[in-house]
Amino acid sequence: MKRNILLTIAYDGTGFSGWQRQPELRTVQGELEAVLSKICACDIRIDGTSRTDAGVHALGQRATFQGDFGIPTDKIAFAANNMLAGSMNVRQRCAYAQIVKAEDVPEGFHARFDSKGKKYRYIIKDDGGFDVFRRNYCYETGCHLDEKKMQEAADCIVGTHDFACFQSAGGNIRETTVRTVSALTVSRSPAGDVLIEIIGDGFLYNMVRIIAGTLVEVGQGKRRPEEIEDIIASGDRTRAGHTAPAEGLYLVEVYFDEKLREEAAHEQICR
């Protein structure tokens, strides 16, 4: 009997040329498909919610795949992770990618088309120093940022707008560049990093990284928070800030139901 499986996936984007399958390149999708095809004993193709770029990390990427195979659903994650880790005990060694959870979903459910929204986190190290061990996991600005000014600017982004100014060239052509950002917060972690967290119903190509880069420039004093409204109204990419590095970006969660609105409301209240 044909089954439909929903995966929750975490990965360190450092070792991959992005999510999407590409000939001759190591990608998350390609790696997982190869492993799942072996453990399911049939050709497996997975559809992910977000096509993250090279260097971008994920805590909660979601993907679906279908097929008629014998392995029980509750064994898929263990078997795949063991193979991804080089057939060693996953308690001793973890690969660059890991299936966090596998679950049965109804026929017709699709991880990308049924997604109602996503949450991303961007991590910035702004203590003035540079750390060789963290360079692949955050944006090291080399100077202190004013997170309060950044939050003032972030407040101007929340809502439904035409976000053409925050879109890079090179992505898939969209019917519309109108999106809804439900929550956008800037805070300090206990370790002292600046954390940007954004929840929305969808994001344009490099949208989160351009927003992060623009907020960094506000935090550096290169831009004023009140400029953001005019930048959005212009629809002009050249008026927005730089594209922040991929290494600081994390896909945290994908929403399929009302939890999107609940999480967004919680984020706004907590700040």
Q: What order do the helices and strands follow?
A: EHEEHEEEHEEEHHEH
Count of all domains: 2
CATH superfamily of the largest domain: Pseudouridine synthase I, catalytic domain, C-terminal subdomain
Helix coverage percent of residues? 10-25%
Question: How is this fold's topology laid out?
Answer:
Layout: E1 3-11, H1 28-40, E2 47-48, E3 57-67, H2 73-84, E4 97-104, E5 117-125, E6 139-140, H3 147-155, E7 159-162, E8 178-188, E9 194-200, H4 207-219, H5 227-234, E10 249-255, H6 259-270
Summarize the structure.
The protein has 271 residues and is α+β, with helices and mostly antiparallel strands.
Explained architecture:
By secondary structure, the protein is α+β, with helices and mostly antiparallel strands. It folds into two domains: 3-104, 2-Layer Sandwich (Alpha-Beta Plaits); 117-270, Alpha-Beta Plaits (2-Layer Sandwich), CATH 3.30.70. Helices cover 25% and strands 26% of the residues. It contains six helices and ten strands. It has helices spanning 28-40, 73-84, 147-155, 207-219, 227-234, 259-270, and strands at 3-11, 47-48, 57-67, 97-104, 117-125, 139-140, 159-162, 178-188, 194-200, 249-255. Strands 1, 2, 3, 4, 5, 6, 7, 8, 9 and 10 form a ten-stranded mixed sheet that branches. Strand 2 and strand 3 form a beta hairpin. The longest helix is centred in the N-terminal third of the chain and has 13 residues, at 28-40. The radius of gyration is 19 Å and the shape is globular.
